[in-house]
Amino acid sequence: MSQKPTSLVTGGAGFMGSHVAEHLLRAGHTVVVLDDLSGGFRENIPEGAVFVEGSVVDHELIDRLFERHSFTYVYHLAAYAAEGLSHFIKRFNYNNNLIGSVNLINAAVNYEVKCFVFTSSIAVYGAGQSPMSEEMIPVPEDPYGISKLAVEQDLRVSHEMFGLDYVVFRPHNVYGERQNVGDRYRNVVGIFMNQLLRGEAMTVFGDGYQKRAFTHIDDVAPIIAKCVEYPAARNQVFNVGADIPYTVNDLAKVVSDAMGLPCNIARLDARNEVKVAFSDHSKAERIYGTHEKKSLQDGIRAMAAWVREHGAREISIFVGIEVPRNLPPSWAKVLRAKVPTQ
Predict the structure, then answer these.
(1) Which residues have a Cβ under 8 Å from the Cβ of 237 and sit 6 or more positions away?
(2) HEC profile of 1-30
(3) Strand, helix or coil at 323?
(4) Closest to 195 (Cα-Cα) out of 178, 183, 177
């Protein structure tokens, strides 16, 4: 009888991480969740997982965890994934999303982890032609995408130098139950639902004709969890997510219908962002097979039911802007900047 694998899930108290941890437990893994609770919640951690409160930037803690648990696999989902905000918090972004990842990669090499699973982002592509495919040359347009691409490259060279196997996923616009709807800087579905519950208009940057393919968590978490079972997936990069793009205006209508509330929209100044972004998933389907994906309407209804049950959340404000120049006006009003003094 083979021994149960032991898997580390970083960000396992967060949205995507908690779902991946849940699928791993169902598959018979021993699961250790590492999370600093900066964006996650204890109640998200699935029953049966061992919880360690801490950050990936704490390399001494990371080394102690690897020594204690002898992890078979690492699932690295912890990140501060605010693409637009990352321009203004470069140091924070690179420290958390790049250096924190390197701490885990170092430990994975030193403690002979069998496979390192990393959630990257389609932010690595930049404003490339859609649908985005893994063969395209990435040209990220924000520090968040740059940090994700750097981790991908470090995993590649760590495999070449040390034999560390990895699997990289580039999910996009994922939404669903357990999402932190109080985060004002990312996850537009959650932002809309929280605004509606608070009696506010849904805020849309620009004309709302930005196009995205919005992905329900059930269409990505199971694939991420089971990828280590597929030898052909090792040392590969995969896009995962929904196939049909919608405008932000379309999304607002679907969300308001699901919440049973009027579709009131407040227009904000346009911000610097990719206008159309969705990806091709044929490579993932060749390896993992195909499955029927949740429609936007069904996925939004499922999340709306969960959000109505749990209620609105207080809106989190990021404190510690490093570069206040060119902040979107709607953010500049509420963000307290730490500006270097002479």
Answers:
(1) 120, 134, 152, 168, 169, 170
(2) CCCCCEEEEECCCCHHHHHHHHHHHHCCCE
(3) coil
(4) 183
* 153-189 tens-digit pLDDT: 999 999 999 999 999 999 999 999 999 888 777 789 9
pTM: predicted TM-score of the whole model, two decimal places = 0.93
CB neighbours (10 Å) of residue 199? 9
Paired with 117 in beta bridges are 75, 167
Both structure tokens of 303: 């999340």
The type of residue at 93 is N
Using CA atoms of 317, 103, 20, 141 in order, give the dihedral in degrees to the nearest 10: 60
CA 329 → CA 49, 84, 270, 324, 335, distances in Å?
42, 13, 10, 11, 10
What does the alpha-carbon distance between residue 80 and residue 59 come to, in Å, rounded to a whole number? Answer: 18
CA distance 188 to 216: 13
The number of angstroms, rounded, from the C-alpha of 167 to the middle of its chain's C-alpha atoms is 15
Question: Strand pairing partners for 6?
Answer: 30
Phi, psi of 46, deg, nearest 5: -70, 145
Identify the three-state secondary structure at position 129.
coil
pLDDT tens sequence across 212-224: 999 999 999 999 9
